[in-house]
Amino acid sequence: MVANAWPNDGWTAHLAVGATQTAANGWAESIPFTVPLGTTSLQIQLTAPAGHLLQLAELVGADEPIVPGDWLQLADQPWLYLDGQERVRASAWQAAFLVPNAPQVPVPPGPWRLRTFAFDYDPQSDARQPTATTLDVQVDLMRKPDVHAGTIDLNLCLTGARGITAATAPAHPRVRAALETVVQAWAQVGVKLGQVRYFDVPAPALDVTHDDGTDAQLAALLALAAGQPPGIPIFLLESVDLQTSNGLVPAAGFTAGLPGPLTVGGLRTGLVLALKYDAPDILGVVMAHEIGHFLGLYHTVEAAAQGDVPIADRLPDTPTTPENLMYYAPDPAYLALTPQQGAVVLGGPWVRP
What we know:
The chain has 353 residues and is mainly β. The chain is built from five helices and 21 strands. The strands form five sheets. Strands 3, 5, 6, 9, 11 and 12 form a six-stranded antiparallel beta sheet that branches. A five-stranded antiparallel beta sheet has the order 1-2-13-4-10, with no helix packed on it. A five-stranded mixed beta sheet has the order 15-14-17-21-20, covered by helices on one side.
């Protein structure tokens, strides 16, 4: 049932779990699978055919509750599980979950089981509704004992925004400066750049709206990376907007998947950056920050509403002040990453040991 998968070099294995069906209440039946001895991390991926939001409702490993099965009944919303050591976040079309994403989370060998939940969401009304759908479930297993360094490849997808093309991007000052910032930031935790490839993509528009619902526009854009060699797709557009209940809000960029599904050309595989913010130029720090999300990192702390206590990540060595790359408002003056942030991303499937 376990076979070598992408990339086929001995440190990953792909477990084809198969399909499951959620009922009208959004819940699917429990799915068993086996984690073999020597596994150091795993990534679960869910895919649905029609843009429903997909969530990991329960995860138990060798009788250890990684994500408890009652959190959805107790939560105010099904988006994000915050109360345990392992965080999980829903997304439309495809959702991926890296385990562990905090150092306290175990990965014991033996029998595991998971349950999924599906729902629909309207970002303008903020309405949520459980839904029945069919999900494809896969698990990618990693064996990376004592890994302190790794490599990522990037696929820069050029839409023609600001006149930057695959031919001009390698020598373009903004692109080169941004990549230098990425190298500087991620070298701190042993992650280096491997191949950086450049592709012209026929994007239908030079801007995109991320609506946190079906995200059909975003999914169509990310699908343009299909057929590219393995690498993190990074789309450079003129502008990016977030659809909220208060209307459109401009953004410097965002990651489609946290973490990124292990599917090149997948409907949540990649990140999108806006080129409009060039005074001062924040392209590099936003690129480095969003790569962190794609590799499995959450914000060190979230912006707090009036009177609320800020929500911090589950990594004990990260600060709640701005002096970290993964602070909710990235600043070019602060590119620091911590050893535990490095441990999370080095355990993931996109970083080659």
